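Quick one: Transcriptional regulator from Streptosporangium nondiastaticum, structure tokens please.
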Amino acid sequence: MVSPHAPNMAFRQLRGARSAAEFAAAVRRAAREIGEQVSCDARYIGRVESGEIRCPNYAYERVFRHMFPGCEPEDMGFVPREVVRGRGARSKGSAPSDCTDQPKESDVLRRAFMTGSTAAAVAAASLGAAAPAASAVRVPRRAGDAEASAVEQAVRRIRLLDDRHGADGLYRRATRPLRLAYELLDAGTRRQSVADRLQSGAGELSLSVGWLAHDSGRFADARSHYAEALATARVAGDAALEAHAFCNTAFLARDAGRPREAVRAAQAAQGAARALSSARLLSLLALREAGGWAGLGDRTACEAALLRARTLFGRGPCGADPEWMSFFGEAELEGLEAQCRSALGDWRRAAIHAQRAVDLQDAHFARNIALFTAQLAGDLARAGAPDEAAAAGERALDLLAEVRSARIRSMLAGTARLLGGRYGGEPAVASFLERRLERHAAD
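--- reply ---
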């Protein structure tokens, strides 16, 4: 394991006698072998070996695991993904790279915690640790780097916990750092760079908390948080945050049964995102639009949006891709298309895409694996494949031992009602129904 500025000697040893350029070519070849797209060059290898890149993104990790079977990322000299979720914090005017983080952040947070400051409260609340009582928190006259770092850390930590465990149980805890983040904005700062970080961080935190509300079935709370983030983006003139806020709003509108609003919000998000030079972001936003069209039953418009999403996705990742999009890979693309096909009543095609989503999903995203497995169960049930649906339902129940999501439980409840009404006497279905009742009682 490497420290922030220490060379990664373990990775250097893996390169052996090859030059950095030769090794980069080998990485690109290995990527093609497993269907990945990485733009590896000698400079990237140098950044890894110097310790600048502390952990690879998911695509590179899969390639390195393929090249060195049996080696974990830590064996290659990388830090655990828990240390830095996704990529480094986004700052205005800079493009994020791979899994880097701010070298001094841990020390900043430790010092802040010792002072009982607002930064300490933000950091501790997001980590689930004991934080100073609200009455004991001293909001500084001017916020500084420590407070901005704490807000950014809260965003990353909440996203990490949601990826692994789902939203239930996290939402109430996450509202505390959000409230404190907006208090910091009100406190003001002496430097514009810190003000920009706080604006962006508070907006992203509002979106993260809104997502927790969304996924746990609190749609009114989610709508309020998304609106707050959108207002923050407009005040700050932050197009990236605005695109993210509209993206989440579109997703919520679709889930809440307002498909036309979903289309409008997705189109507004695409308008905000056009200047950001991220094809992957535009791909996700096209999928959000497709979801709205599917909800309206407009097959032609939905198909056009899906085609646009796949075309944009095929252009590959780039440095302008937002930090929060680390979840958006091929698995998510397949899963969102499955949801569109399902809304259009194409159950068999939906099941094919849902199965691909499960097979392609990175193990880190436990919640999404459970989500797409539940999606698969429902699609199979509606397609008239009760035994396969029951088997997928049981796998989803197994995953719910680690993931808590009202949304996923609701999906499985709908599948159970459908299977019970049509195929309740079949052994596989009866087993699934019994297990789901047991899980429901345990929750």
